[in-house]
TrEMBL record:
Cofactor(s) in the UniProt record: FMN
Protein family membership: Belongs to the flavodoxin family.
Signal peptide range in chain numbering: none
Ribonucleoprotein listed as a keyword: no
Key words of the record: Electron transport, Flavoprotein, FMN, Transport
Name listed for the protein in its UniProt record: Flavodoxin
Lineage: Bacteria, Bacillati, Bacillota, Bacilli, Lactobacillales
Species of origin: Lacticaseibacillus sharpeae JCM 1186 = DSM 20505
Main function: Low-potential electron donor to a number of redox enzymes.
């Protein structure tokens, strides 16, 4: 496992965002983790490969949900990433998922659940329930994202 000198966990957040809502959510999580002493790398999904999670103790995906009329609900740039993620061995790592959606849709923020399933398939341990945000994050969402960060850190400490 990757550890800093103080035996503190490190985190990696990969996000997909079309209009900025999920990017902001990812940045809120990054800031919350860093405020709590966890060095956190933030990468846009099309610039990342799932195997990058091998270098982190806490793995986070933040993704919007996008239904194109077909069965797909993942961001287009997330489809390969999703398949690659499922095929990894991330045992010993903690994961959390979050993202923006729109309550107007029946499949509200379903990508948050789908990425959680992919992490589970990869053998990672869920450190916090997924946080689904309706459009842009508001004060209550920010509180929930800070709790999410706390729970991920606590879960990583337990696994270490
Ligand atoms: C064509 C289209 C389809 C969408 N489908 C869904 C959907 O199935 N479920 C959902 O929760 N949100 C859906 N959304 C809403 C987006 O997920 C929402 O606007 C989100 O805030 C976008 O996040 P971003 O700003 O990070 O890109 C859809 C948006 C568009 C434009």
């Amino acid at each position: 496992m990757t550890k800093t000198e103080e035996n503190m966990a490190t985190a990696k957040i990969v996000y997909a965002s079309m209009t900025g809502n999920t990017q902001e959510i990812a940045e809120i999580v990054q800031e919350a983790l860093e405020d709590r002493g966890v060095p956190t790398e933030l990468t846009e999904m099309s610039q990342a490969v799932a195997a990058d999670f091998a270098d982190a103790d806490i793995c986070v995906v933040a993704a919007y949900t996008y239904s194109d009329g077909g069965p797909g609900l993942l961001p287009e740039e997330g489809e390969d990433f999703y398949d690659d993620l499922r095929a990894l061995d991330l045992s010993g790592k903690v994961f959390g998922t979050t993202g923006s959606g729109d309550r107007f849709y029946d499949d509200f923020a379903t990508a948050v659940d789908m990425f959680a399933d992919a992490f589970t398939a990869a053998g990672a341990t869920k450190g916090a329930e997924g946080v689904k945000v309706d459009l842009a994050a508001e004060a209550e969402d920010i509180d929930n994202l800070e709790i999410f960060a706390d729970q991920l850190i606590a879960a990583a400490a337990k696994l270490a």
